[in-house]
Amino acid sequence: MESRLIELETKLAFAEDMLDTLNTTVFRQRERIDLLERQQPDALRTLMARAAHLSAEGRERAERDRLLRRAAGISDNETLDRTLREALRHGPGRPDM
């Protein structure tokens, strides 16, 4: 009988230790979730601002390319890119032709 009681007390002590460990784990996870939830709006605002900035840069680049094509009498971006690369390679005042 006494050995059975010792065995049960040992199992109970082990179960209590596991429960304490589990409680600590759950508590730490809840803290981490709370932190992430607080950071989420900031991260979303940062992401939205970056997307708006990139969108504005894209519109500016498209307008710049349109103006350059118009000024050079070029109809497409591929020809514009090739023309600009050639101009950069040969320097100002030194046409490729």
Question: Could you characterize what this model shows?
Answer:
- This protein has 97 residues and is an all-alpha fold.
- The protein has one domain (2-90).
- It is built from two helices and no strands.
- The protein is rod-shaped and about 100 Å long.
- 0% of the residues are buried.
- The model has no long low-confidence stretch (mean pLDDT 84).
Number of contiguous helices:
2
Termini separation (Å)? 106 Å
Binned strand content:
under 5%
Range of helix content: over 70%
What is the 3D shape?
rod-shaped
Question: Structural class of the helix and strand makeup?
Answer: mainly alpha
**Low-confidence parts, pLDDT < 50 over ≥5 residues?**
none
Tell me the domain tally: 1
The counted number of beta strands is 0
Question: How would you briefly describe this protein structure?
Answer:
Helix content is 88%, strand content 0%. The chain has 97 residues and is mainly α.
For the structure shown, list the relevant keywords.
mainly alpha, 97 residues
How is the topology of this model organized?
Blueprint: H1 2-72, H2 77-90
